[in-house]
Amino acid sequence: MINMISIKKIASAGLLATTLLASFNAAAETILRVGTWLPPTDKQNEVVWPTWAKWVEEATEGRVKVKLEYGMGHPKTMFQLVEDGIVDASFSFHGYVPGRFKLPQIVEEPGLGVGAEAASVALWRVYDQYLREAGEFEGLQVLAMFSHGPGTIQSNFPIHSLADIEGKKIRVGGGVQSELAERMKLTPVGAPATKAYEMLQQGVIDGIFMPMAQQKSLRLNEVTKHITVFPAGMYMGSFSMFISPYFMEDLDERDREAILSVSGEKLSALAGRAWEEGDREGYAEARKAGVEINQLSPDSALAKEFNQMIKGMDAKWVESVSDRDVDAPAVMKALRDIAHSYQPAQTTLAEE
Length: 352
Prior knowledge:
Blueprint: H1 4-28, E1 30-35, H2 43-59, E2 64-69, H3 78-83, E3 89-93, H4 116-131, E4 141-146, E5 151-155, E6 169-172, H5 176-184, E7 187-190, H6 196-201, E8 207-211, H7 214-217, E9 226-229, E10 239-243, H8 245-250, H9 253-261, H10 264-289, E11 292-295, H11 301-309, H12 313-320, H13 328-341
Parallel strand pairs: 1-2, 6-7, 6-8, 9-11
Antiparallel strand pairs: 3-10, 4-10, 5-8, 5-9
């Protein structure tokens, strides 16, 4: 007969081994900390990062897990937070850092005439093929490039001509928006997107340049009365998602490759698709709140006035990047060709 004390010792040893194995597995997990500045309701935090986190965990067989960290400050600091190792990865809008990220702003030029997914994939492809070697992201490793949907003017006053907006205090996000503000002769107010609701509510500004998604995600349907939508898009927005190269170097090679396998064009397309869905939801929320949406036709007086106003902006961007070693006109043509020929994925966000 087996001694009961021996059975207890065997059981205890098995329990100890199980506990030690669990502890070892927990210790072996690498936590990838992602810093974010937008609220949980924004598609970037609601869909894009969580979906990528699932992809990363699956691709690394659970060895790398993603943790989202909120309230990381002004979006312009995200690049430095990753460079300094405060967080491992993040994303931001290039226009918040004037002068550093000139090349990706190619996608922002007015009149691209596509949705966020096509624009995002086009931006990733031209970055990967033409712009990567220019070194604008030195100190960072780019995971994806993306654009929000076409920008609109969301205001507390109607706009029937460009004269209606002259002198008005409008929040702009930088990049091409600053050039548009100058040509429209309005009074630009710089502020992160997260301050838009408060500034509109308090009457600090008369309106904003922003895509439709923020009617819902930032609840701007509560503080705007009018939205002006231009036929081929007033402007787009250029963003990047990036990670610390030092974090990547510390990973096992198989995990580095696994993370990159679920990034790049796949992640760029996801981000664009999510922001495009956000635009659709924004339209719905605006209509529900009774916001007047002025969807301009191509032959409307304001659309024609706008098209006349933006002449020469392409050439100005080309000139602005003359200090970069790229064939800017060729890159612009490539981006537009890709964007207009791109066929969006048939999968829904729920199927990702």
